[in-house]
Write a structure and sequence with these properties.
This protein is α/β, with parallel strands linked by helices. It has one domain: Rossmann fold (3-Layer(aba) Sandwich), CATH 3.40.50.300. Helices cover 33% and strands 26% of the residues. It has ten helices and ten strands. The strands form two sheets. It has a six-stranded mixed β-sheet with strand order 6-7-8-3-9-10, sandwiched between helices. A four-stranded antiparallel β-sheet has the order 2-1-4-5, covered by helices on one side. A hairpin with a 2-residue loop joins strand 9 and strand 10. Helix 3 runs parallel beside helix 6. The model has no long low-confidence stretch (mean pLDDT 91).
């Protein structure tokens, strides 16, 4: 597998507290990688380290083989990384369309407003509505669309299904194949193990800041995942 993004012995700290211990992970172009684990396992910290929100050594994060660890977040957007943050973080004073336009970052590519509206037709209907007037699922669609507007090579989704109804979650995950077909790989942090296994090509389980299990999602058993997730022996 030729890696689009790769981490090598990635560590991360919050002051004196170490949150990640030597994470090795790889993402190939056009694939979906899911990261699961209990609260506090280091999943969100890992994404933040990738996008420069948490300090990382330069050699610990590589994009197309080039060291990018520690680069400023706005520069990483220009290199092709985009984050859909936990809690969506939409701008409440702006409309749906204005929130989407913020994501462009001067980029040009196939992910235009029209393409986002084709991906999520409900957003076209609500384009002039305040973002906070939308349902939680629709707000998550705006957050994904905003990230895609930068035309990323790698889309990072943090706690995508948190607080959403199962039917809404299925609708959101249903667009993943279209996103990947357009040339964007996806890393998704997910609490719903079943959904993660169904959507991902490969799965990583984090436990206490370390990778406790990894492999093709289709080949991992529930027993393996439970052992890795809960640290059972």
């Amino acid at each position: 597998m030729s890696a689009l993004l790769e981490t090598r012995e990635l560590t991360a700290f919050y002051g004196d507290f170490q949150a990640l211990y030597g994470i090795d992970l790889a993402v190939a172009a056009g694939e979906v990688v899911a990261i699961i684990g209990a609260n506090g396992a280091g999943k969100s910290t890992f994404l933040k380290a990738l996008v420069g929100l948490v300090a990382a050594k330069a050699e610990a994060v590589r994009l197309d083989g080039a060291a990018i660890g520690g680069i400023a977040p706005h520069r990483l957007v220009g290199l092709g990384l985009a984050l859909v943050p936990e809690g969506r973080r939409l701008f409440p004073s702006l409309t749906v369309e204005e929130n989407l336009r913020i994501g462009t970052a001067g980029s040009r590519g196939q992910w235009t407003l029209e393409a986002i509206y084709d991906l999520f037709p409900i957003l076209a209907e609500r384009r002039s509505s305040p973002a906070t007037a939308l349902s939680g699922g629709q707000q998550q669609m705006v957050a994904i669309g905003r990230a895609l507007m930068s035309n990323p090579r790698l889309l990072l989704c943090d706690e995508l299904s948190l607080g959403l109804a199962p039917t809404v979650i299925r609708d959101i995950y249903a667009v993943f194949p279209r996103i990947c077909k357009a040339g964007t790989a996806i890393v998704v942090v997910e609490q719903d193990i079943g959904q993660a296994m169904a959507a991902a090509d490969r799965l990583y389980c984090f436990q206490e800041g370390r990778v406790s299990l990894s492999g093709p999602a289709a080949s991992l058993t529930r027993e393996q995942i439970s052992t890795a997730y809960f640290g059972l022996h």
